[in-house]
């Protein structure tokens, strides 16, 4: 029996999912936004493609997909980007399509909801307060020393996050938000190494996880610029066991039944691992390619396979994995088409092809060799290509 996937994409990504779905004999529909018409979508893998001005405007999106469903039975709705997770959940609820619904989706999109849920389930999180009751905000600042970070509840990654250093700055910033204050939370600033764990979950069990450590924390790169980097953690890394344990704790706390996840954690000066956030989708910034090069596991393709397994009532098993020593480097480029030809070591296994971006992945026989290459290339990329753009308040 054939299955029809409706894929939602507010950004250009997810081609590997659609291509794998087509290889598996599925019908694949893509709903994206009009400004992405010119992107190189994998039309060879698509049965149809539809465009709307935006995907998060209600009730327009629900009416449009309901109209499509009059003639096409939609079996699964797949959000290819973080901003599509809640939209997909609302569509599933309305069409009664299997998969994550509204309540669980908030645990993966709403930074306040995910922190409350994690704290209630005993997962360590930085101290935080909802920017709602001003008395509670004042009490938070008195018990938690500055600096603090103000975060929009439903943006992705580091978008819109501000670091605040004294009480008057906090009150001035809150006042500037006006009626949008309740859409923010404020959190204790924790300095330390930032990690991410990318996982595959089926029937509430984690069947695959790969842990990495960022170079410059994403918040710093977003706000101050620099070359973004992340590298796979070695099997012998002392923090690996703790990371995988808290990742398992978070996934259980958030109630994910099946899918792929991208979670971020920070190790504070006290040695404690704190949960920062988790997304119910494949990691961005080409982290999916890094995972593939380090382990041989393509998260997009496995997402297709686990959805098919669920549809047919069958068990799912991920492929046997490798344990490579891989690292990803990425930055905005001063050149429209940066020339990476002189980054030519044999360990370079992938190069990014995107206007005004420079990026590459190395995968080495040892962690030492990987680190030597990354240190050299990070410095060289900063000199050759690095451009810095001011941070924006929103991503879409």
**Total number of beta strands:** 16
Which strand order does the major sheet show? Answer: 13-12-9-10-11-14-16-15
Beta-strand fraction estimate: 25-35%
Taking the sheet with the most strands, its summary is: 8 strands, antiparallel
Highest CATH level, the class of the largest domain: Alpha Beta
- What is the number of independent domains? 3
**Arithmetic mean of pLDDT:** 94
The assigned structural class equals: alpha+beta
- Span of the ends, CA to CA: 37 Å
**Helix content, binned percent:** 25-40%
Order of helices and strands: EHEEHEHHHEHEEHEEEHEHEEHHEEEH
Radius of gyration: 21 Å
Describe this structure in words.
With 396 residues, the protein is α+β, with helices and mostly antiparallel strands. The chain folds into three domains: 4-99, Rossmann fold (3-Layer(aba) Sandwich); 127-188, Dna Ligase, domain 1, CATH 3.30.1490.20; 193-384, ATP-grasp fold, B domain (D-amino Acid Aminotransferase, Chain A, domain 1), CATH 3.30.470. It is built from twelve helices and 16 strands. It has helices spanning 15-23, 60-68, 85-95, 102-109, 111-120, 134-143, 167-177, 218-224, 240-254, 287-295, 299-311, 367-384, and strands at residues 4-9, 27-33, 48-52, 76-79, 128-130, 148-152, 162-164, 184-188, 193-202, 205-214, 228-232, 259-267, 273-279, 325-332, 348-351, 357-364. β15 (348-351) and β16 (357-364) form a beta hairpin. It starts with a strand and ends in a 12-residue tail after the last helix. The relative contact order is 0.12.
């Amino acid at each position: 029996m054939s299955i029809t996937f409706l894929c939602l994409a507010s950004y250009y990504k997810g081609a590997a999912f659609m291509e794998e779905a087509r290889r598996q004999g599925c019908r694949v529909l893509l709903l994206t936004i009009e400004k992405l018409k010119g992107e190189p979508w994998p039309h060879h893998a698509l049965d149809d493609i539809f465009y709307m001005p935006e995907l998060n405007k209600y009730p327009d999106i629900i009416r449009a997909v309901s109209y499509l469903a009059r003639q096409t039975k939609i079996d699964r709705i797949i959000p290819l980007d973080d901003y599509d997770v809640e939209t997909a959940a609302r569509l599933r609820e309305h069409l009664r399509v299997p998969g994550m619904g509204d309540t669980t989706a908030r645990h993966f999109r709403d930074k306040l909801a995910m922190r409350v849920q994690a704290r209630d389930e005993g997962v360590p999180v930085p101290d935080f307060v909802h920017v709602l009751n001003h008395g509670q905000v004042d009490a938070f600042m008195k018990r938690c020393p500055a600096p603090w970070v103000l975060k929009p509840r439903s943006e992705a990654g580091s978008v819109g996050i501000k670091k605040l250093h004294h009480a008057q700055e906090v009150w001035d910033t809150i006042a500037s938000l006006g009626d949008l204050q309740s859409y923010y939370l404020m959190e204790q600033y924790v300095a330390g190494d930032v990690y991410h764990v990318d996982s595959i979950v089926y029937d509430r069990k984690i069947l695959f996880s790969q842990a990495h450590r960022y170079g410059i924390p994403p918040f710093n790169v977003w706000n101050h610029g620099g070359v973004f980097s992340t590298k796979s953690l070695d099997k012998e890394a002392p923090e690996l066991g703790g990371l995988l344990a808290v990742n398992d704790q978070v996934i259980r706390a958030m109630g994910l039944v099946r899918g792929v996840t991208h979670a971020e954690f920070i190790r504070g000066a006290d040695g404690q691992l704190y949960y920062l956030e988790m997304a119910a989708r494949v990691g961005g910034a080409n982290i999916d390619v890094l995972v593939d090069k380090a382990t041989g596991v393509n998260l997009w393709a496995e997402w297709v396979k686990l959805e098919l397994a669920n549809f047919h009532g069958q068990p799912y098993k991920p492929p046997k994995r490798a344990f490579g020593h891989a690292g990803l480097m990425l930055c905005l480029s001063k050149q429209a088409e940066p020339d990476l030809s002189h980054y030519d070591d044999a360990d370079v296994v992938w190069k990014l092809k995107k206007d005004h971006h420079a990026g590459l992945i190395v995968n080495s026989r040892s962690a030492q060799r990987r680190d030597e290459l990354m240190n050299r290339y990070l410095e060289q990329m900063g000199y050759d290509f690095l451009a810095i753009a001011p941070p924006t308040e929103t991503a879409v």
